[in-house]
Amino acid sequence: MIENKKPQTELSTHDFYYELPAELIAQEPVEPRDMSRLLVADRKTGTVSHRIFRDIEEYLEPGDVLVINDSKVIPARLLGVKEQTGIGMEVVLLRQRELDVWEALTRPGRRAKTGCVIKFGNGELSAQVTGVAEGGNRVLRFDYDHSAGDIFTMLDRIGKMPLPPYITTPLKDKDRYQTVYANERGSAAAPTAGLHFTTELLDRIREKGVDVVSVMLHVGLGTFRPVKTEKITDHVMHSEYFRVTEDAAERINAARKRGKRIIAVGTTSARVLESASDDSGIVHSMCDDTGIFIYPGYRFKAVDALITNFHLPESTLIMLVSAFSSREFILDVYKEAVREKYRFFSFGDAMFIK
Question: Is the domain covering 13-73+173-353 a CATH 3.40.1780.10 domain?
């Protein structure tokens, strides 16, 4: 597992707070995808400009590398009943250990004791709690008719998309909580910065001479967990599984050697690149878990620019983007976004920090 090398800082969690009117929390995605708004923040000049997301191609140059996270969200939310009592249970799958063995969040957790069985759908899928994982999550072993397909087939039939708690409007089209390039199943949440891209926009970006490179990080629900410690250095970051292929590493390193920019699409891609790179900025191919926690004081090694959404106050994600620029500049940018009524969080608008 990639260890977190924590920079020293005296910052508190509240130092990353900002006021956000509830009506600016986006409940539905914009159609088409690339017509969301784009705030361009220039770290060197301290200036911002307001564009439409499809204009992002104007800020990309031939030879640049755009790094995307191609993890695919699974319908990881299951509503069922405890077999012994008929009490309703909610399960959110977090991490696959074996084909039919998963680590999961269960609600209410106190009722998910080892040995109990939870039934889903019309009883076509069941899960037995076989243990308790670190942090209180449960380990579940699923049972179903394998002639009907694998566990992912079952999830597609009876599972629901695990939308963040701040989205209360039902999702009409589950594909809208999926990037157009999603490939490998395993995420419990979308890498949301990528939701703004269309296939056509990516084609135009490639035609411009930009190399679009895929890495993979399976996003967990830790993304939405609040930082509850007063000092940010006391927060324990969740770990997530990631992969960088040999081909991806070679293309990224070749571009850096030519003096070109590495542009991360989303904080997940940024965390992959920083986890897989050495102190000289060389990215290595690997498969591992990362618990890297990036906040002001961190020196970025592999990321030159970042495309990202607007993040929750006091979250690890706003800490990461603050580290990429400065806390003061990012909070000023967020205040500007609020004044201009940008849409926030997963289905919200985007920011390009260059």
Answer: yes
